Amino acid sequence: IKGVILRSRQVLCLDALNSTRTASEDMIPLEASPDQDESAEMPALAQADDDPPLSCGVKFKAEFTLNHRLNAETAILALQSSVLTPFEINNRRRYFVYKDTSSSIFYLKLEEVGKESKGKERQDKEDEHEEDALPTLQLIVRGIDEPTGSVKEQLTDIIRARIHMLALDALSVLLRGSANFSVEKKDVEFLRGFGAPVKHSFRIAEDIDCYVFLL
What we know:
Largest sheet: 4 strands, antiparallel
Shape: elongated
Helix content: 25-40%
Oligomer: single chain
Strand content: 5-15%
Low-confidence stretches: 37-48, 200-215
């Protein structure tokens, strides 16, 4: 019975999140603002280890390795202001809400993968080649249902395509900015493997299904 009650409350909370784009502290915890000083962060972070009562489990994760011409902060801001804008949650930084084609609702978080969250074997390899280590973004998908292909494939493909375009734009700016710019081997390999972007379209949600993203 407790499980049924919990699921019912989560469904209601997810519905409200999708319709208002405003998160409840019972589902998504508050996080300290990056411009707060350390002393101000302490109260907010003190409860970070405890999941909120209506928090949903992680259903899917996707990682996106960035080109060496991109940094994580720039990529996240660019994604927020483009392909992820319709899903943005108003009162949570880097959180998004997404209603898939089966009408299931999920909330997503986009963040840089820190060294502390990487596996030991992967970390050891990166330590050996520190200068070659590339920044990586991670999309964490939480909900009560299993995500469909519109989340696992279409949405991640669109994010990945946008990241490729960001890298191409960054390289183009450098090439135009200086006649003496030295192109690295990695740049040449990136350009050789950069084919025509694949076009994807998908319905965002019933209330905003007029939006179709083409990359």
